[in-house]
User: Fold this.
Amino acid sequence: MAGPSIDALGQFGLTTGLGPIGRAVNFTNSNEAMLAAATIIVALFAVGLKARALVPGRVQALVEVLYEFVHNMCVDTIGEEGRRFFPLVFTIFSFILLGNLIGLFPYFFAFTSHIAVTLALALFVFLFSTAVGFYTHGFRFLKFFVPSGVPGWLLPLLVPIEFISYLSRPVSLSVRLFANMTAGHVMWEVFAGFMLLLTAGLGVFGAIASVVPLGLNVALAALELLVAGLQAYVFAILTCLYLHDAVHMH
Amino acid sequence: MRRFSTALLLALAPAAAMADEDKMPQMDFSNPLTLDQVGWMAVIIVVLYLVLSRWGLPQMGKVLENRAAIIARDLAAARAAKLEADRAVAQLTATLSSARTNAQAEVAKAVADAKAEAGAKAATLNAQLDAKLAEAEARIEAARNAAMSAIKPVASAAAGEMLLKLTGSVPAQDELVRRVDDALAARKAA
Assistant:
């Protein structure tokens, strides 16, 4: 089979970015996208904070909405202690959100589709929330694995279950984001490849028929936009939930 | 035949694309870039965290706090102004009602004064009229008395003349005057 084939996974391939300097320090194309995401976030703050208007302009309103959204999420989920973790949650949320969003554009790398990236973020959240738990409660934090109001003979069964479910948190947190982003981008690539295959295989009729996968990709673009926001939100709210567990132990 | 093979390829393409697990770059941990990107991510995200937590978020928080403070201040001012207005309206209402009460009292007093004055005037007029009436009556009485006393000598003289003609004798003058007086008094009493 000569002609086009579908390479749905090539888009996730890592190369070095930033020219020879990047090659020397293994600064990858995914790190370029991370740098772009971080730069956009800081630029949004820089522009949004320029006027400090009582009635905000567009960019200021955007940053304010983001700020209040994450702030309310922190305070509502964690409680008043959530204010301390707000900068952290905001950094994680905005970083993932911008990573998801710029990954949707052609030629931009979606770094949240790499399990190494999402697992590193999830492990950090997991270890940090565990550390907060021990810092707040000392060794009494281990009681978190002992559900209250349960007959004693069930505990040998329940404590391991609780412990395993606690340990599975970083896995589910990272795989959810990674799988969502990877699946979306693979489907895009597959449907786009369909158009090439149809045109190569069926000629003019194939070219006309490729309107169908094109339409599907348009619909997918809307879906992926939703997924990009939703998965960033899910990651952030789960981070808040884990911190809530660490602070309140229930 | 070629069409059939294309159709088959189309049907299998997604599965083929996904099935090649070992070609998935995300799982290729033999590639040093896979883990090196995490190190650089740590650098980028730490810098982002420092910039946001030291500068961006506190500044934006200040903007929001400032706005909330201004809105609260304006609301308080509006509430105070409303209280002031309510108080002014209440004062106005009280002033109006007291003015109305005063005016009604003034009118009632004026009416009462007028009535009293009219009553007094009528009373003096009546008194004057009564006095005049009494004076007139007194004058009539005096005139009648004068007339009556003028009658007495004429009556005594006439009685003396009549007695002289009837009896030929004239009684004593005192006796005659006394009898005539009695008769006049008796008539007056009757």
